[in-house]
Design brief:
Blueprint: E1 16-22, H1 37-52, E2 69-78, E3 86-97, E4 101-110, E5 116-126, H2 139-146
Antiparallel strand pairs: 1-3, 2-5, 3-4, 4-5
């Protein structure tokens, strides 16, 4: 391998690895990635992934479709401190894809996915923009979601 070649990221058995960047101002007074920044970086990774599938929000909830959803629950555990700015990644997958809700898992990790700094899960509910009541995911969304499901076991 030449010095210009980067080592290949390990193959993931499920989900996707999305690159994210930690900036200097994401660090707290101790020089650690602030605990509240982890969910923000995970959200940005999910936004990027869903945009690849045409799920976007352009300011109009009535036309947002599957992007009209709300967080029901967020759980996160911190495994190791992030102590410097730079390139990292978020490993994303779905644990459950229901009719109106889903549970996704995530790992905030090194850029190559080998070191886990934090991990957790989040439950989302798809909403009808007019009633703000649960509504079914579209079939297009469900098809994309099935590709992200973690195998049982």
């Amino acid at each position: 391998m030449t010095t210009a070649e980067a080592p290949a990221a390990p193959a993931l058995p499920y989900g996707r690895l999305i690159p994210v960047t930690v900036h200097f101002d994401d660090l707290d007074a101790l020089g650690l990635l602030h605990n509240a920044r982890y969910p923000v970086l995970v959200e940005r990774a999910w936004t990027e992934l869903w945009q690849e599938h045409g799920v976007t929000f352009a300011g109009d909830w009535a036309t947002a479709g599957d992007a009209c959803n709300a967080v029901r629950e967020l759980r996160i555990g911190y495994e190791a401190p992030v102590t410097r700015p730079g390139g990292y990644a978020v490993h994303l997958w779905l644990d459950r894809l229901g009719t109106t809700g889903l549970t996704y898992g995530f790992r905030f990790c090194s850029a190559d996915g080998t070191v886990t700094y934090a991990q957790g899960s989040r439950v989302l509910v798809r909403l009808d923009a007019a009633t703000m009541r649960p509504a079914p995911w579209s079939e297009r969304f469900r098809a994309a979601g099935r590709e992200l499901l973690r195998p049982a076991g």
